[in-house]
Amino acid sequence: MKNDGDFGDARKAYVGIKGSLGRVAIGKQAVTQEIISNPVDIFNRSGTPIAYDSAGPFRLNNLVTYRKQFGDILFSADAQFDGNKGSGGSDFVNAGVCYKSDLIYIAAAFYNKELEDDKDENTLGVTIAKSFESLYLAAAYQNIEKDNVDGSTLDVVASYFINETYKIKLGVSKFDDGGNDISSGNYNAYNTTLEWHKTPKFRTFIEYQVKDYEYRETNDQIMVGMRYNFDYTF
Fold first, then answer.
1. Which residue spans within 31-58 are E strands per DSSP?
2. Helix (H/G/I), strand (E/B), else coil: 124
3. CA separation for the pair 201, 224 (Å, rounded)
4. 25 vs 9: CA distance, rounded Å
5. DSSP reduced 3-state for 130
6. Which of 5, 74, 103, 167 could form a cystine bridge with 195, CB 3.0-4.6 A?
7. Residue 112 forms beta bridges with which residues?
């Protein structure tokens, strides 16, 4: 493919084949680690989950993926071999398993990423989520080892339908890059959202978020907006 299969800034662009043995695809697509991030990705801003967003992968170029569903269990594996190790790129291997039913959601995944100067990043993540009619609870944790420095991410979220129209969402996050000086980006974050659901697909919202950095000034934001979800098949 032109440009060595590099799809640039495209959000997703991949091709594959799916059958009784599973699905294999190649291109720019979501990584297996999304089974860790998806259950806590409930807010309206792009930078969520808050702690995971500072460390975890979402979509990668030049990625080969395999997915296979066994009833309520999903097995997933990825590999990226872009040949740029040590020059700004990295090879990447990611695998995980997820159990999803009406009762509960549980997932675990591990990835290894080759960094520059022959350094490695190894991350193990786990997630659990549960719905209780109008109440939804979820938590995701990652242990991150990068060049023998241990870090972590933690996202805990909750949402509750006050009635058929209004929904409140709360989130607490903790990001730890393993640093203990002014160069560290460690923070605790808090998110509060109130949504007005006009229809199942359309909602307006007001969202307030605080990032309380350990070695930097606190950052807080308020966001007001609208969102329309749609799904088109052709």
1. none
2. strand
3. 17
4. 19
5. strand
6. 167
7. 93, 122
